[in-house]
Amino acid sequence: MFEHLVAFKFNGQYDPQNGEHLVGTLLALKEQIPGIVDITAGVNVTEETENIHGYTLGLRVTFTDQEALRAYGPHPAHRHFVGLLEGIIEEVVVVDYPIFK
């Protein structure tokens, strides 16, 4: 399996009221994109404020394998989500790694 972690930092055009909509759109990807085993997303509520660095939304997706992760990027449902970020995203951090147990 493969893990896909993403942290989103938004610019001044971002309306925090849209956070729930973005999270809902992300969670719906599990039913729309083959190869997703599990997905979680949420608005950052950490009390470690010195470590936020402006990142306010987090995403974790577990895929069946690296091929499923590769197919995720160009999938129309994922592209739709990326389109929702136009004009409001400042920076994104992505970490992908194989899961060893």
Approximate shape: globular
If you average the pLDDT, what whole number results?
A: 95
Compressed to H and E, one letter per element, the order equals: EHEEHHE
Structural Rg: 14 Å
Instruction: Please list the strands of the largest sheet in the order they lie side by side.
Output: 2-3-1-4
Biggest pleated-sheet summary: 4 strands, antiparallel
How many H/I helices? Answer: 3
- Which class do the helix and strand fractions yield? alpha+beta
Please provide a written account of the structure.
This protein has 101 residues and is α+β, with helices and mostly antiparallel strands. 30% of the residues lie in helices and 36% in strands. It is built from three helices and four strands, in the order βαββααβ. It has a four-stranded antiparallel sheet. The chain starts with a strand and ends with a strand.
Structural features:
36% strand; globular; alpha+beta; 101 residues; four-stranded antiparallel β-sheet
